[in-house]
Amino acid sequence: MRGPKREIAMTDQTHPAEGQGRVLLSQDRVAGLTLIAISAFALWASSDLETGTLRFIGPGLMPKLLAALVGICGAILLVLSFLRPSEAMPKIPLRGPLCVLAGILAFALTVQTVGFAIAAPLLALLAGLADRDMRWGELIGFAIFMTVGCILVFKVGLNLPIPVLILPGIIQY
Predict the structure, then answer these.
(1) Sign of CA dihedral 39, 42, 48, 52
(2) Which of 39, 54, 97, 118 keeps 20 to 30 A from 28, CA to CA?
């Protein structure tokens, strides 16, 4: 004879289970702290600007006002994160941001030394590594297409003083 049929209860994973402590780094808490940090940076960056008065508004009034409002929103989020349960922060994959950052840094360091024709595809290739499903043929085609397109727009069309190709002692265009 079989025992009674058991039902498996579906639990809400967003709330901590009974007996467990609250989530230390919830999404709301991280968002609130991030907004407060952005606000503090904006207030610091605009500290040299004169605020003025309501009659004679200075160039620093709007940046400081917006920074303060962002900070207030961050503080509200932070307080609410302690008052109600929220989802834990998911693991943040670093592959994408690191590959894009590497591409930007490589472009910045090479565009003046070897030229746009080498720096632009290097940027596209390094940033393209951020995608796990990247296909080399498509990425190389994209890099070539974008490089040629950017050279036509910026060097030929807009006549900007961007070095296209620099090979010391051989060519400089």
Answers:
(1) negative
(2) 97
